[in-house]
Every structure is written in structure tokens, then in C-alpha cells.
Design brief:
The structure holds 2 protein chains of 2 kinds. Helix content of chain A is about 70%, strand content about 5%. Chain A contains 14 helices and 4 strands. Chain B is mainly alpha-helical. In chain B, a hairpin with a 3-residue loop joins strand 7 and strand 8. Chain B is globular. In chain B, about 55% of the residues are buried. The chains are: A mainly alpha, B mainly alpha. Chains A and B meet through helix 4, helix 5, helix 6, strand 2 and helix 13 of A and helix 2, helix 3, strand 2, helix 11 and helix 17 of B.
């Protein structure tokens, strides 16, 4: 089936798979968003436990999606993996650190004799939920704003900025995507908590969650608007049939116009996020996470499609146009892409069992009584 | 052509060793306890006896504490291939990325999904669905091990790929040869079986502690019985797979085997060193006996290495300086051909850019002729191919000695449990507590043997670590090394303190 496909078709297929994983990660970043809300919305130990235990049943899915996104990029676009991770060294290291501390925080936070104390583990969750997502946003924004690297004749990376990737966080454009993602994660986090917690007898707590959700959404808007407007007005790189890269004015606007389905996805995504927040704020519905989550996935897909399709280098070099990475020059060979494409057939099966057990586990909302036993986080 | 900073490379190696060794403190327990939990819970579901549920829940709690820190240390390993070894990621990413991606899709999601069900689903899913989730976590952990060990096996014995001079990288041409090579299979069965030993030692050790303290005695005896049987089967299987593993090493990595055995001069009917002390002043330049003392079993090394008695096993001198009679080429000769390959590749790339197609064609022909030796072209001295003999010799022999001891230990544990004398023989109980730490030492020694033994290669005979590393200032890698050291040490202390507290609390009272 895949073996007869042209390599370009496989490259596009794999860009879509990686985009789906990236977009799902953005949806699942509700875990990080929820973590950043912990101190703001939970005022008692029971409330804190409800937040942590609710998120604690899902944190591994987010973590795994990030790791799988990394693995999929490694397998399908290894030149990106070697260039970005080896080049933008510090930004990736800092992101990884925030995920290391997250991984132990849930399990160790309330355990007796935990050495660092409950507050430190909660701080770990907060750092992961804010700094981690901010830096991921800044790193993703460099898919458009570009990075400072050249590649040698043997495709080895030379990073030309001394901050080794952290410079991405000092660009208003990059930063605005980062802040938007943090705020969007908080919005999703709040919506998820509204969906998964039994607020019986905890009216004030629910009010705080609803308020924080709405405020996070409102704060996210100017950053999203700035990012989108700047993106659509900025010049971008384009490659021709033989791979020569040039600068084109309003490249991403042109991408959007030449891929109407992507424009529709962007608009639908934004409307769905608004709908999710509307349901929570004005209809007191607990189901806002679903439209907002789907909306985030669609917006995420838009971001990745605009970055990589329509002859656009998805990892542009600001120093040497010929070093820019495209889905054509950065990918694995035909054979590997075919093998991995067969592996990708597992993805619907994986999504199926995740969906089934998610519903099973979340069929009943999390109540205070469940988070006070010794097996709870 | 390929400039590198050896200081940076060594820091990157140290960082990988640090993260891998920390990670490996936790992984064997995850791999093994997940199965033990599945066994315990299966007994609960089958018999309906609440005692088995209590046992399951207790070990599951310890599993969860251990699992979290395993995840924390594991994420670094995957991304470190990109951050510190970016040239490696490009040169072999076409092959090496696939197992890592499959690990994520096929194994990590199993663990992530069913971990939550296993811990929080007791009241939310049916008994059978819960048991299914526990088994899925165990299977997921072991599937994960398969893919990462297949990737590691490929680094030890690369197969199923070809070099593409256009993209300057190796590309996969046979997935089965990568994922299911003899080296990959032998690594998987050996490593997972040895992990089952460590987990069994952990369960037996903690249970012995309870018996010493005269607490939870029924619980402890039941736990010991299941874990000791699992441990004995795993120990015997580890010994069996260790033999196959050593055979693979002998065939694919003869230098590693020679270093295991401190064998400098190759010989027919070579003997196996059962125990020995190396002379620390021994160097490659002299012809002195490398041992101050040794006990050798005549002829056994030839038999284990080649499955045929009396055959020749090459020593370090043969492999470095060559041995015409045995058809072994010297490293110096391979280096010369390798340098020709690298120079031809450079000329080929430059002449293609300048449009000199005749020169491109001739240099490509020269490259193809010498391509097999390309890895050796990066070496600066023939002696570079010799890994640290002392570290390997002692690690290997320690691993084998401890592995043999564990067989005896589990056999005695089963015997005592069968005769219901576990509680009365305190020296055995103390041995049980200590044996867990011996298990960790043995398991870590196994990885030292595997990874230090491959040096100086990142990919055996194909890519030295010097070329595989990222072009980055050494200060960056030093800084992250110490960051990891501090963070992992703090987390380890936290893990141990929490674990000890949970053990002292013990299983829930009925």
C-alpha cells in the first residue's frame, strides 16, 4: 500500500502524522494548564487534591504524546531532530528539565517523607505548566521566524547564536505564541477540571475555576491576534522544484489562501475554542473541554500545515537559506518512511483504546471522598 | 574535515553514562515488578482471596514510586541523542529513529493509558478489566524494552542498512534485520530476564525485612514464594541467554570479548578466566602477562566464542596489529583505507557542486571501494580501538559471579519457603535484604560491559563517538551534566526516602 507511493507523498503523510501528534499535544497541554491553575483555584487541601488527582490521571498521556512526537520527528525528519536538538541546545534542555520534575511531582507530592515537601512538588508542576509550555511555544514559533544555524556539506549543524536556542524566547513574535499557548493551556485546564471534578458542595471552588478559565481565555486573545497578524504579514521562505530557497513577501498569508481547507480549519478551530469557553462561562456546562479541545487540535494542525506545506521550509535558517529544512530535504529515505507508515496504522487503534478507557475512568466525576484515601496523589 | 573537541565528547559520554546509569536503577524494577503485580493480581482474580489483592496493592504502590522516576530519567535519554549526539542523529537517524518512534506509539501509550486504570481504576472498572490493565502495563513496559534494546543491539552489530553518499548518512534497507537481528533478540531476552531477577530480589529483600521485623509474615511468605520462583526461572534463563549474548559479542565485537577476558594474545583452545587480578601497569606496548593472578578453565573460551572446541579466539594484539595467519587485518591498514574513503567522499561532494562530473565519478568509485572502512578513517591511532580493559574485565566477571549466586539464592529461598523455615534462619533473611543491592550492582555492571565495551564506537566499526557528538562548546555539556547530576541525585534521595517510608508502613491492614 505505502510501498508504491512517491517519496513526496510519504513526506507529506508524515508531516501530517507529526502535525496530528503536535496538535494532540497542544490539546493535552490542559494538564500543564491545570497545573498552573493549582495555586490560583484551589484554596483548601481537598480542592488541591481534587485538581492534582484529576490531572494526575492524564499527565502521562500528555508526556507520552510529547515523547512520541519527538520520536516521530526523529524517525521521519531526522535532519530536524539533529539540527534543532543539537543546535537549539538550551531551549530543549530547559523544556526537558520542566518535564523531568513534572514526572515525579504527581507521585511524590503527598507521599510521606518525600524529602522536598509538598510545596516544592507543586512548584515543579507550576514550572512545567508555565515555563515548559512557554518555551515549547517559542520553539514552535521558530518554525516561522527561523533560527540561527548553518549546515555543513555533511549536514552537521553549526548554531551561530551563542544562546543556543534560548534567543527564541527574546522575540516578541515567538513569545506571543508561547504566552498564547500557556493561556490556552490554562483555558483548557480549567475546562477539563470543570468536566472531571464533582463540585457538589464546592460552589466557590467551581466559581474560581470558571473565572480563571474565562480570564485565561481573555488574556490569550491579544497574543493570539498579534501572532496571527504578524504571521500573515511577515515574509517567509519558499523552495522551488530543485530545492532552491528564496524569500517571499506574505508567504504565510499566501499559504493560507492557497490551502482554503487550512483557512477553514483555523476559523473552525477558533470558533470551537470560543464555544467551549462560552459553554462553561455562560451556560454552566461542564462539556466545554470537548469543543475547545477539538478547536485547539484544529488550530494546532493549521500552525503545522502553514509551516510545512506549500513549498515552505518548516525550519528556516535565518543565516543561510540553503540550510533551511523542508519536508523534502529533512526526511528519512523512502524505505524508512514506508516502514513507519505501516507502523502509523497502529495510531487509530491506540486512539481507540485511549478513548475507551478515558470514558470508563471518567464516567463518574472525581469526588472529594476519592482523593482522601492513601492511594490518591 | 571532521573537527571535534575531545573534551566535549568525553563530557557528552559522561552525561550519557550518568543518565543511563541513573535510569537503569529504576527500569529493571519497573520491568519486573509490573509482571509480579500481574501475577499477584491474577491470583487474586482467580482465587478471590483478598490477601492477594492486598499484596498486589502494596507492590503496586512501590512500583508507582519507582515508575515515576524511571519516566523522569528516561525522557532525557531519548532527547540526548539529539542534543549531545546530533551528528549521530543525522548519520543514522534514518535507521535509529524508527525503533524510538515505534516504542512511543506501540509501548508508551499502553503504559500511559493503563497505568491510570491500574492505579485509580479499582472502583471504576470491572475486576477483569483491571487485571487486563495491569497486564497491559507489564506488556507495555516490556514492549518498550524491546524497541530500545533493538536500537541498542543495532548499535552493537549494525545490519540492514547502506550508506548514501548523496545525503551523507546510512539508510535503512531491511527493517527486520534492524529490529529482529540476533543481537537484538539476544539483548532483549538477556536484559529483560535479568530485570526480572532484580525485581524478584527486591520483592524477596523487602519481604525478608518484614520477616526479620516479624511483621506482615503471611504477606511476606506469599510474596517470597511467588518472587523466588519467578527469580529462579529468570536466573536460569539469564544464564542461558548470557551464553548466547557472549557468543554474539564474540562474533560481532571480538575486541569487546578480548577485553572481557583480558586476552591480549589470541590463541587456539583459549581458556576462560574464571577469576583473576589484572596487572594495572600492563600497557599495549609491552608483552607482559596482563594478570597478577588468574584461574583459567582450559579451552572453554574457544567453545563459548565459536561453539567449536579448539578454535582460535583473537586477542587485543591480533585485533590491533593484525594476524595474517588468522586473516585479521590491522587497524592501521583499515585506518588508511578509511581515510581514503573520507577524502574521496569529500572530493565527490565538492566536485558535484563544482560540476566536475568526471572527478565526481572517479572519487565515488574510490569511496565505494573503501567505504567499509570509513569509520576507521576517523580514528587518530590504532590504539583507539581498545576499550578500557580493566573496567570491562571486572564488570563482566562481577556480573557473571553475581548471576551465578542468584541462582543459588533463589533455589535456597524456595527450599526454605517450601519447608516453612524462612522466618527461622536469620542469616538467610539478611542475605535476602543485601541481595537486592547485589542485583542492582550486577545489572549496572551489565550495561557497563555493553556500553564501555563498544567504545570508541557509537556504532560498532562504523561511527566513532568523536564524530557522533554535537558541535557545541564543552561548557554547555559540562553545565547540563552537573544539572542532571544534581537533579537526579535529589530525586533519587526523595525516591529512596519515600520508598523506605512506604515499606515501613507496609501493606494495608485487613
Amino acid at each position: 500500500m505505502f510501498g508504491n507511493m512517491e517519496i513526496y507523498t510519504l513526506q507529506q503523510y508524515w508531516w501530517i502524522i507529526c502535525s496530528v501528534l503536535g496538535a494532540l499535544f497542544l490539546f493535552l497541554s490542559f494538564v500543564q494548564g491545570g497545573q498552573s491553575l493549582l495555586w490560583q483555584v484551589a484554596k483548601s487541601e481537598v480542592e488541591k487534591s481534587l485538581v492534582v488527582n484529576s490531572l494526575g490521571r492524564k499527565w502521562e498521556l500528555t508526556f507520552t504524546t510529547l515523547v512520541t512526537f519527538g520520536g516521530a520527528m526523529f524517525a521521519s525528519f531526522p535532519k530536524f531532530y539533529s539540527t534543532s536538538f543539537g543546535g537549539a541546545y538550551w531551549v530543549w534542555m530547559l523544556i526537558l528539565f520542566t518535564f523531568i520534575v513534572q514526572a515525579v511531582a504527581y507521585e511524590y507530592r503527598k507521599k510521606p517523607n518525600n524529602f522536598l515537601g509538598q510545596k516544592v512538588y507543586e512548584l515543579f508542576l507550576f514550572i512545567n505548566g508555565t515555563v515548559g509550555i512557554l518555551l515549547i511555544g517559542a520553539a514552535v514559533a521558530t518554525f516561522f521566524s527561523g533560527s540561527n544555524f548553518t549546515l555543513t556539506m555533511f549536514n552537521f549543524v553549526n548554531w551561530t547564536h551563542p544562546l543556543r536556542g534560548v534567543e527564541a524566547a527574546f522575540s516578541l513574535f515567538n513569545l506571543s505564541l508561547g504566552i498564547f499557548l500557556v493561556m490556552n493551556a490554562r483555558t483548557l485546564g480549567g475546562l477539563y477540571l470543570l468536566n472531571s471534578i464533582d463540585f457538589s458542595g464546592l460552589v466557590e471552588f467551581k466559581g474560581r475555576v470558571t473565572k480563571c478559565t474565562f480570564m485565561s481565555f481573555v488574556i490569550s486573545l491579544p497574543f493570539l491576534l498579534y501572532f496571527l497578524i504578524a504571521l500573515l504579514l511577515m515574509s517567509g521562505q519558499q523552495y522551488d522544484d530543485v530545492g532552491v530557497v528564496s524569500i517571499v513577501a506574505n508567504k504565510y498569508l499566501a499559504n493560507l489562501l492557497s490551502m482554503p481547507i487550512v483557512a477553514v480549519m483555523l476559523l473552525a478551530g477558533l470558533v470551537l475554542v470560543i464555544l467551549g469557553v462560552y459553554l462553561a462561562k455562560f451556560k454552566s456546562s461542564s462539556r466545554g473541554i470537548w469543543p475547545a479541545g477539538l478547536g485547539t487540535v484544529l488550530v494546532g494542525l493549521t500552525v503545522f500545515f502553514l509551516a510545512g506545506f506549500n513549498n515552505t521550509p518548516f525550519y528556516p535558517s535565518n543565516v543561510d537559506l540553503n540550510s533551511s529544512l523542508t519536508i523534502r530535504n529533512a526526511s528519512s529515505g523512502h524505505y524508512t518512511l514506508v516502514v513507519m507508515s505501516y507502523v502509523s496504522l497502529l495510531v487509530p487503534f491506540v486512539l481507540g483504546y485511549i478513548f475507551y478507557f478515558w470514558r470508563k475512568m471518567d464516567g463518574k466525576k472525581l469526588s472529594s471522598s476519592e482523593v482522601t484515601n492513601d492511594k490518591a496523589y | 574535515m571532521f573537527d571535534f573537541d575531545l573534551g566535549m565528547v568525553n563530557w557528552a559520554r559522561a552525561q550519557f553514562a550518568l543518565t543511563a546509569m541513573y535510569h537503569w536503577l529504576f527500569v529493571p524494577l519497573t520491568i519486573g515488578i509490573s509482571f509480579l503485580c500481574a501475577f499477584f493480581e491474577s491470583l487474586y482474580v482467580k482465587t478471590g482471596n483478598e490477601e492477594w489483592k492486598r499484596i498486589t496493592k502494596f507492590w503496586m504502590t512501590l512500583f508507582g514510586i519507582n515508575f515515576a522516576i524511571g519516566v523522569a530519567t528516561g525522557i532525557i535519554l531519548e532527547f540526548q541523542f539529539g542534543t549531545n549526539w546530533s551528528n549521530y542523529s543525522w548519520i543514522v537517524g534514518d535507521i535509529f529513529g524508527a525503533p524510538l518512534a515505534i516504542e512511543g506509539i506501540a509501548a508508551f501509550f499502553l503504559e500511559a493509558t493503563f497505568f491510570a486504570v491500574m492505579f485509580f481504576g479499582w472502583e471504576r472498572v470491572s475486576k477483569k478489566q483491571h487485571l487486563f490493565a495491569t497486564w497491559m502495563v507489564a506488556i507495555g513496559s516490556n514492549l518498550s524494552a524491546w524497541w530500545i534494546l533493538a536500537a541498542n543491539g543495532w548499535m552493537q552489530a549494525p545490519a540492514g542498512m547502506k550508506f548514501n553518499p548523496e545525503s551523507v548518512r546510512f539508510e535503512m534497507e531491511n527493517f527486520a534485520a534492524v529490529a529482529f537481528s540476533k543481537m537484538a533478540v539476544s539483548k532483549f531476552v538477556h536484559v529483560t530476564a535479568s530485570s526480572f531477577i532484580v525485581a524478584s530480589l527486591f520483592v524477596v529483600g523487602v519481604s525478608c525485612w518484614f520477616l526479620l521485623k516479624k511483621r506482615h509474615q503471611v504477606f511476606a511468605r506469599k510474596s517470597i514464594m511467588v518472587a523466588a520462583v519467578f527469580g529462579l526461572i529468570s536466573s536460569l534463563y539469564t544464564a542461558f541467554t548470557g551464553d548466547e549474548s557472549a557468543y554474539q559479542v564474540a562474533q560481532k565485537q571480538p575486541m569487546k570479548l578480548a577485553a572481557f577476558e583480558g586476552l591480549y594474545n589470541g590463541e587456539k583452545s583459549a581458556g576462560l578466566v574464571a577469576a583473576g587480578v589484572l596487572d594495572p601497569s600492563k600497557s599495549l606496548e609491552d608483552q607482559n602477562d596482563p594478570f597478577l593472578f588468574k584461574v583459567k578453565i582450559p579451552g572453554l573460551l574457544s567453545l563459548l566464542s565459536n561453539r567449536t572446541p579448539g578454535t582460535f579466539v583473537p586477542g587485543i594484539y591480533d585485533l590491533v596489529y593484525g594476524n595474517e595467519a588468522e586473516g585479521i587485518e590491522s587497524v592501521e591498514s583499515k585506518m588508511a583505507k578509511g581515510k581514503t574513503a573520507l577524502e574521496s567522499l569529500k572530493v565527490y561532494k565538492e566536485s558535484k557542486i563544482s560540476g566536475n562530473l568526471t572527478l565526481a565519478e572517479s572519487s565515488l568509485a574510490s569511496f565505494n571501494e573503501n567505504q567499509k572502512y570509513m569509520g576507521h578513517g576517523h580514528l587518530s591511532s590504532p590504539k583507539d580501538v581498545v576499550p578500557p580493559v580493566g573496567i570491562l574485565f571486572y564488570s563482566f566477571h562481577l556480573m557473571v559471579a553475581l548471576g551465578s549466586f542468584f541462582i543459588l539464592f533463589f533455589a535456597v529461598a524456595i527450599l526454605l519457603a517450601y519447608k516453612d523455615k524462612l522466618s527461622s534462619i536469620r542469616p538467610f533473611l539478611w542475605t535476602g535484604v543485601a541481595s537486592f543491592f547485589l542485583g542492582i550492582i550486577s545489572s549496572e555492571a551489565g550495561w557497563v560491559v555493553a556500553e564501555v565495551g563498544r567504545q570508541p564506537w557509537a556504532i560498532q566499526d562504523m561511527l566513532p563517538v568523536t564524530v557522533a557528538a554535537t558541535n557545541i562548546g564543552r561548557g554547555n555539556v559540562q553545565a547540563t551534566f552537573f544539572m542532571f547530576l544534581i537533579v537526579f541525585t535529589i530525586l533519587l534521595v526523595a525516591e529512596i526516602m519515600i520508598m523506605l517510608k512506604q515499606i515501613s508502613i507496609g501493606p494495608q491492614e485487613r
